[in-house]
Amino acid sequence: MLEVSQLTRCYGQFKAVDDVSFSIDKGEIIGLLGHNGAGKTTIMKMLSGFLEPDHGSINVDGLDLIADPKSVQRLLGYLPENLPVYPELTVIDYLDYAADLKGISLNEKAAEVQRAITATDLTSKLTSAVATLSRGFKQRVGVAQAILGQPKFLILDEPTNGLDPEQTEHMRQLIRELAQQATVILSTHIMQEVDALCSRVLILRTGQLAIDARLDDLQRTNHLLVDSSMSAENLKSLTKLEGIGNIDYLGFESSTNIHRYRVTLDSSAGNGIGAKLARSIVEQGYELMRLQPEQSDLETLFREVNQQSDQATEVSHAA
Ligand code: ATP
Asked: Strand pairing partners for 244?
């Protein structure tokens, strides 16, 4: 369990992170999102013990990071935005050095380094100097050092940055596997990545936490998408059902005889509204091919969150 409370950090007079609190349970994959400069990296640096907060606390499995950084850092794996590495070191020497820094014992070290190499598919580059690696391979070295010692908490700043599509998929699969034993917090600008990996998102705006929500809840809309053989002129019967607001006709596909609709639910719609709608269509003798909640796409949602925050800021300035 990671508990972050009232985290605040300034650079000079500038408040980069402002009173941020959240907690994360074991096994979750959390996406930390926000525009450039929103404060993601500053939070990640504080979570990893690289940067001290001006105010607030970070607690990992009951241990206070600020009071006992060494014990907490043993539980953490951190992939920073820019990997601090001696460029002349070979990959294998660097990982060996990183294992020492993490305090991995001598009898475990060889197996641990090998596990990280296999997981990140680095075998072909072991004797190459880190400076000579492509961006994608450097990223893999960064991930390999982060997962050494099988950390309970993994903090990944843009983990697929610079990877080709195949490696991106490989990395996502690796993150899913790691998340079975660890809690993962990752920062990314790639919304498909959030969709593919995260169960919950934290959206930062100018240093403050604007949204902390499960992805399902965020993406849920008050619309159902319906494909049916019921034609537009017969829709009236459905609008009489309690909980159904408007029904928009989206079109007809003649090859399959399917009419498509978007049904807007109103505030009286309960959990059983989908079943009620399906029953009504079928009982009237029509076929029902699809009935599913419409989901917001994450990019639109992200834009809306930032616009809402902009409006809130304008209102509070005007007040
Ligand atoms: P990006 O998506 O661009 O990586 P971010 O959300 O990670 O951005 P941070 O790097 O945490 O944002 O930066 C938050 C704010 O703090 C920015 O306005 C940045 O310019 C500022 N900042 C970060 N590091 C420093 C520093 N060392 N000195 C002064 N200001 C800094």
From this structure: 265
Which ligand 1 atom lies nearest to the CA of residue 43? 11
Q: How crowded is the C-beta side of 285, counted as CA atoms within 13 Å?
A: 1
Cβ–ligand 1 contact at 73 (below 6 Å): no
* Helix segments in 132-287, DSSP class H: 135-147, 165-178, 191-197, 215-219, 236-239, 273-283
Per-residue burial over 174-195, b if 16 or more Cβ lie within 10 Å, else e, is bbeebbeebbbbbbbebbebbe
Radius of gyration of the chain (CA): 25
**Residue that the structure tokens 């007809």 belong to:** 252
- AA letter at 164: D
Beta strands at 200-205 and 208-214: parallel, antiparallel or unpaired: antiparallel
CA 40 to centroid of ligand 1, rounded, Å: 8
Helix axes 165-178, 135-147, angle to 10 degrees: 10
Cα–Cα distance, 121 to 134 (Å, whole number): 14
Positive or negative: CA dihedral 105, 115, 41, 30: negative
Which tokens is 203 given?
Answer: 């959206």
Q: Name the pTM for this structure.
A: 0.79
* 209 C-alpha to ligand 1 centroid (Å): 15
- β-pair partners for 157: 187
- Give the model confidence (pLDDT) of 89-121 as tens digits: 999 999 999 999 888 999 999 999 999 999 888
Give yes or no for residue 80 CB within 6 A of ligand 1.
Answer: no
Edge-to-edge strand list for the sheet holding 288-295 = 244-253, 258-265, 220-228, 288-295
With a pLDDT cut of 90, the percent of the chain lying above it is 51
How is residue 114 annotated by DSSP? H
